[in-house]
Design brief:
By secondary structure, the protein is of the alpha+beta class. 64% of the residues lie in helices and 13% in strands. The chain has 2 domains: 151 residues, no CATH class; 154 residues, Heat Shock Protein 90. Strand 4 and strand 5 form a beta hairpin. Pfam families: His_kinase (PF06580).
């Protein structure tokens, strides 16, 4: 059932077609009326050509172009175009004879000069067909381009949603990993009834606030990430006591710079979890510097070479997150020798 909007659109389309063909009729009368004063003769001859022009044009724009040319059925397009050309050419020939015969009372001298020339008559008819067909082809190409653009947008949106789901999944993996390590530390202090336990709870509370509420943000200030790294290090200092030596240096950190939350903290956590004591001490060196274009992060810890570098989910997660969030804008180098495990991350910030 047609709605009011559809009916109105059809009516407007019909009116536009009528106006266009009235314009074509005026073109024919002007073209064939060159150096002629017989308006009735010219108008009748132009009217006689109109059905041929209209039929040829509509066959081209509603059948040949959409069904064959657009669908790349080139052989059938060429074949049916040839049929159309032959039939329309025959009808144009009949029109010329009509003009020379009936309208000029079978007197050659009474015929219009242009009407005597089949070539000029065909030019007039096929010029209209070609112009309208070109417009139709342009319209279909624009419509196809718009559909392609919409499809590409939908594909990109789908890919973005998949990346967001994957990123959320990676974050969910980080949560229990981080909490398990921290709560284990607190448990040990609680058993010993250590005086540092309240301070640990306070720092853990700050970290949980960052973990639960700030990590959902796409970006946080670099200064916030640094602050929570310091809290985490202090928690670990309480756990390791005299067996830990951490050197954390920050240089030229840009206050307004933002990064993805929990981007650097997993590196710190990994160094504590998989670091090895050398001469009774775990040594961790951390250097962080930034410019307006990016950050340079380096971390090194004492390491037992026999341990599998791929153990745990920390580094695997961070590599996946970097690929999702900073693709082609980061450089991550991971190296290990007999005694040290080193990570350097260079990140370009757009």
């Amino acid at each position: 059932m047609f709605t009011k909007e559809v009916v109105l659109k059809k009516v407007v389309q019909v009116l536009l077609h009528i106006v266009f063909w009235c314009g074509v009729l005026l073109f024919f009368t002007y073209f064939f009326g060159f150096e002629s004063n017989d308006d009735a003769y010219i108008m009748t001859f132009s009217f006689f050509l109109m059905p041929i022009t209209i039929a040829t044009t509509y066959v081209s724009i509603y059948k040949l172009i959409p069904d064959y040319l657009i669908n790349k059925r080139y052989f059938l397009f060429g074949l049916y175009s040839l049929y159309t050309l032959i039939i329309s050419g025959y009808l144009i020939l009949v029109s010329v004879f009509f003009g020379l015969g009936y309208l000029s009372e079978f007197k050659y001298n009474n015929a219009n000069q242009l009407n005597k020339n089949l070539f000029f008559v065909m030019i007039a008819v096929y010029l209209v067909v070609i112009v309208v067909s070109a417009f139709k082809l342009l319209k279909l190409n624009l419509k196809h381009a718009e559909k392609t653009k919409i499809l590409v947008t939908q594909i990109l949106e789908t890919q973005l949603k998949l990346k967001e789901q994957e990123l959320n999944y990676l974050k969910m993996q980080i949560h229990p990993h981080f909490l398990f390590n921290t709560l284990n530390t607190m448990y040990g202090f609680a058993l010993k009834k250590a005086d540092e336990t309240p301070e640990m709870i306070l720092k853990l509370s700050n970290l949980l606030d960052y973990l639960l509420y700030q990590e959902d943000k796409p970006f946080v200030l670099l200064s916030e990430e640094i602050s929570h790294i310091k809290d985490y290090i202090e928690l670990e200092r309480m756990r390791f006591n005299d067996t830990l030596n951490v050197n954390f240096k920050c240089k030229n950190t840009v206050e307004t710079m933002t990064i993805a939350p929990m981007l650097l903290l997993p590196f710190i956590e990994n160094s504590f979890k998989h670091g090895s004591l050398k001469n009774g001490i775990l040594i961790i060196n951390i250097n962080l510097s930034s410019t307006k274009d990016g950050i340079d992060f380096f971390i090194e810890n004492t390491h037992n070479k026999s341990e599998d570098l791929n153990k745990g989910i920390g580094l695997q997660n961070i590599q996946k997150r970097l690929e999702l969030l900073y693709k082609n804008n980061y450089n991550l180098d991971i190296d290990a020798d007999t005694n040290h495990f080193k990570v350097r991350l260079k990140l370009k910030i757009k």
